[in-house]
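Hi support team,

I submitted a single chain yesterday and got back a structure, but I'm not sure I'm reading the token output correctly. Could someone confirm the output below corresponds to the sequence I sent? I've pasted both exactly as they appear in my results page.

Thanks,
R.
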Amino acid sequence: MNAKHLSTLAMLTLLAACSTTPPKKPAPKPRPGISLAGLQADGAGREVLMVTLGLLGNDYKFGGTNPEAGLDCSGMAGYIYRNALGVELPRTAAQIAEAGRSISMNQLRVGDFVFFNTMNRRYSHMGIFIGDGKFVHAPRTNSQIRVERLDNPWFMSRFDGARTLFN
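Hi R., thanks for writing in. Yes, this is the structure output for that exact sequence:
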């Protein structure tokens, strides 16, 4: 091959590399004992559920407010409500708790908020209830958005209440 052919081949290789999309992150494996089968919701709850499930496996980032850069727990809730319902939430978990109406655990509906005291202060962590005793949250640095059970002893011992924005 002469220099012209090598130059053309190099240019084509470079263009092909630039035009390919990066590989998509594989779907997260379900946590042991947690099934998403049978989740149901209507109306606004259904919209919240669809956006929420689409975030599973995205990276946690402290202060994060979008999936591309990563999300923290309140950033995740804000992203979900903005994209599912067009509702802007306050920035922190504590502020979101203040904006919601307190409800009992047996009143939880898909899309409601669950709060936890994980840092020795009220409402220091939150998640979105998805039904069937489960919620989605962005746990901590070096982790991903995932599903947990509300009856998990670790979460139950830190449960700080449930709140809703729905009527």
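A quick pointer for reading it: Residues 9-23 have pLDDT under 50 and may be disordered. Let us know if anything else looks off.

Best,
Support desk
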